[in-house]
């Protein structure tokens, strides 16, 4: 009997993402008759079985991709092909170029992908605007979080960003959406990724020019909210021979308006505060990336990111105090001048050491962050007759310097029976921060030793991981384990206080996928993650806003852990159902503590509750003819918060979100497009806070001119001014209500022009040189 053999392989697109649902055929080389057929799985792998010896042509077809044809000779052994890169199809008809388009929203085994370049509403927008379009992600004034869960860690091109809070938000505001290829929401990251970030990762993947030649683009936008703002930038790409060089420079100038209205109900008084902040922001962001292809297997690359932000904040607040009548009035003014700079260097090397997909890579990174803040505060207490009864003035400076060093190596092996990877990472963070207070007296400003402080924090993490992936017919299995050893030291110099932590933790991950047929697939995943306190949260210094309110760090904060379970069902890539459960223990969160007697409030963070989140998420992708594309998502979840403190109550309840993203094409050439996006968030819980419902509607129009090189855009966000943050909490019997609005309604006019000449790299369809078509 003749031996019957197998041919196996894997398909990826130019971004190294799996290509699922492709038709794989093995044809007789003589008459091109189809002899064997298979289909690629969700992870891109395929398997042709029971093949006789002979000469064949491997033929692969997938919508929106070029056909692939490759000669194969089957002799005495099974054949395992190297990874095959499928290129996006481009067809030229009478000088009109039609490109294969990916859907705006895609679901993979372990992540949700938002293809930014296909979203009309993001024309001329920033990367922060793009992140806000990801279903399930909530963008607030100083953080990114997962609706129904909590904070997300952010990656840029698979590398963790070391900044957070306002600095992260403003960096994303400085980056144009036109530089972003896609955004990946990874709720249960594989073992390769850092275990930090209990609610998952948000990976922002930037564009990397794939065609040879010189090209670039310039962009500019004018935005009108309560105040006006401008942003613009230039992007240049050079891909010639073995060199791939790209550089970009972007700048933003804007006035940003914040309105906050906290009302605190004491037993004997009500404090009603109306605060308005005007933030004058000037941001610069530059990014340079250089890749050199040493040979067809080796690549070395360097990336440098520079960010600078200067913000001048003028804040004015009025607080009325009384119960049935006015007792007094507090008039407070804050002027804050803040300037931050960061430098991020990364060196990358990779070596594809065999034809089966084996690869070794190494990354080294060095990051510095410098923050200089100077604040002037004046708080006057007035009687009902407008007579000043007390006055409080001070100024403070708050320098902060951060250095982070990382080194990571990864090895990927692809033997015939399993895909295997392992690696390790070392990171070291050194921060120095402080605050210096000066009280105003008759003799001028005098240094206040009781409020000033100096704080240093050092953190070192050593990590090892291993991961294995196995595909067997319709089934796919993946299991991983990551070990992280963490050592931290926090020293309050002024208070002569040292806090140390030293712990080893294991973080397992597990995935299983089943493809029933072409239309139906299932997957289940489990992962454990850790959320470490921000070094700024650990600083015990007090930052006073007025004599009645201040922020305070907590050096005794401990990390908390999240166990995530997720079950997915995908039907025809049109209906996507996700069931998820999160079990969080020893959660730290901010809490407002108020003294009923002195009326002094402090906002700090404590490990004070555990939480259970259960939810279901349904996404529907629908195309109506060639003129309407729709992606809609609905999520319902139940949150059970169990407080560990006597002064806060446990609470539980339901929450929900619905959103829809629509693109309309107004002509056959699809050069005039419109977008309508809407979201509605129902009342829900978060820690000790209860949030009210809110909603928003966005509109957009895009026009493509001059062979789609000139892009004109007009967009309006939150057109009904309804994206207001309203919530309340009760601690120690004192209830505070908040009604905040952060200038979400705005109109943006944008223009972008692409220039330069490029040409596609040539490939031979009947050669065994797949390496030539690969991009790094």
How does this structure look, described?
By secondary structure, the chain is an all-beta fold. It folds into 2 domains: 5-92, Immunoglobulins (Immunoglobulin-like, Sandwich); 105-756, Maltoporin, Chain A (Beta Barrel). It is 2% helix and 67% strand. It is globular, with a radius of gyration of 28 Å. Mean pLDDT is 84; it is low at 91-100 and 759-776.
Outline the fold blueprint:
Elements: E1 5-12, E2 23-28, E3 34-39, E4 45-51, E5 54-61, E6 68-74, E7 79-80, E8 84-85, E9 90-93, E10 96-99, E11 105-107, E12 112-115, H1 127-132, E13 137-139, E14 144-146, E15 153-156, E16 159-160, H2 165-174, E17 180-186, E18 201-206, E19 212-224, E20 228-240, E21 243-260, E22 263-265, E23 270-293, E24 298-322, E25 326-351, E26 359-382, E27 388-397, E28 400-413, E29 419-441, E30 444-472, E31 475-492, E32 497-515, E33 520-531, E34 542-546, E35 549-552, E36 560-571, E37 575-594, E38 601-624, E39 628-643, E40 651-665, E41 672-681, E42 684-686, E43 689-691, E44 694-705, E45 710-717, E46 725-731, E47 734-740, E48 746-759
Parallel strand pairs: 1-7, 1-8, 15-18, 35-38
Antiparallel strand pairs: 1-4, 2-3, 2-5, 5-6, 9-10, 11-12, 12-17, 13-14, 15-16, 17-18, 19-20, 19-48, 20-21, 21-23, 22-23, 22-47, 23-24, 24-25, 25-26, 26-27, 26-28, 27-29, 28-29, 29-30, 30-31, 31-32, 32-33, 33-36, 34-35, 36-37, 37-38, 38-39, 39-40, 40-41, 41-44, 42-43, 43-46, 44-45, 45-48, 46-47
